[in-house]
Specification:
The protein is an alpha+beta fold. The chain is about 35% helix and about 15% strand. Helix 9 crosses helix 11. Among the domains are: about 270 residues, Amidase signature (AS) domain (Amidase signature (AS) enzymes); about 60 residues, no CATH class.
Amino acid sequence: MDLAFRSATALAGMIRNREISAEALLEHYLQRLQRYNPALNAIVATDIEAARERARAADAALAAGESWGPLHGVPITIKDTFEVAGMPTTAGAKELRDHRPSSNAVAVQRLLDAGAIVFGKTNVPLYAGDLQTYNEVYGSTSNPWDLHRTPGGSSGGAAAALAAGLTALELGSDIGGSIRTPSHFCGVCGLKPSYGIIPSRGHIPGPPGTLSEADISVTGPMARSVDDLELALDILAGPDTPAAKGWRLELPAPRHGQLRDYRVAAWLDDPACPVDSEIVQALHGTVERLRAEGVRVDEQARPAGHDLAKIYDLFYPLLTAALSAGLPSKVFDRMLDVAADAAPGDRHYFVRFARAATQRHADWLRLNERRQKLRRTWEDFFQDYDILLCPVVQTLAFPKDENPAISDRILTVNGKPQPYMDIMVWAGVAGVAYLPSVVIPVGRSREGLPIGIQIIAPYLEDRTALAFARHLERLLGGFQPPPGHTD
């Protein structure tokens, strides 16, 4: 396998053992950037000279017996919603084209403190507000498995860059599947961590300078291996200041050491959001492989009193409320008018967005109480099961559809239309309840497109999700490079 496709963990070991220099590894990625990125448009901004200078410093430090940390000298890129000092941070918005922050997002700083070398930023949709990746600043990003298809979003540039071997590690964010969907579409790995364990300060949206943490939204790593996800979690997790003065994060160890000891529930399809038959077939195949290894899998288990439709009807208004704080005043005023004028039974997504974005605080508090009851139900569920397996999203990577009226787009699943915004239904299972979720590739479609699985674990038991994902990765083979991207 090409050097560029090796895990960040392995690359860090090679640098540490003097098998390759940080400078040589950076140049290898930069050569691939020139060769493959023009067709993908995954990496949209670079600071190559600063990266080269840091790589030379990393090699000099190592020669002097110094270590900067577990990512010493490893070249990485960062999703263009995270502030990186001196580099453009646009979140895909024209009004932020010239925004060059003077400090790093907290998560970015932690990666730098661990020794990483940031050489580029990866593309996103406007304000990370779509599950495809395009904007008026940098244009459209393509999926390396099929250039006519979307890599997903909002971490689409990140997933495409990882899959194509243009970077060693990425930093993503996720509120409605923005780490998980691109990982599924591009055949890479992603961790949506438990809510609140990795600081998001320095992420846009909200506006630059925002200090509050948005509900549901998380920061998490993306990679080509589960080992890298865990390495990054160790680096990134922990309280932001000033909370760090008073508490520490100690995530529990995985529940089990052996794969066969895991009690697994599987929710592989649902009439409330039917899943592409090829995805269902691949997930069923995964379940059968687990059973062949002696794993107990229950395909009927569900959280008591909650079906998929009920969970999504709770997730969507909480999600929309979280997004509403970043709406410009004129847009918010328009939402007020739409909500006031709509018929009571109107369920069009634009109307549902307007209602939830402008809801009264008392209504949000009632939704939040329902959420807390759902979280208690999940606690009970995970007394009997260790892991829940489910689809990441109901569709394979689809041809780009950049119709600006997002709520009018249509997905086609098993030959039937679905509302485009239903693309977040399966993401809401973990999102609304703050649960950790790991996505890894488990198969390919007839056309060769990647298929991922969502591995959900109890709140704060991220290491259980990662440990199970590592077992499954070893069983099924893990990441494979897309055709045409190996030298």
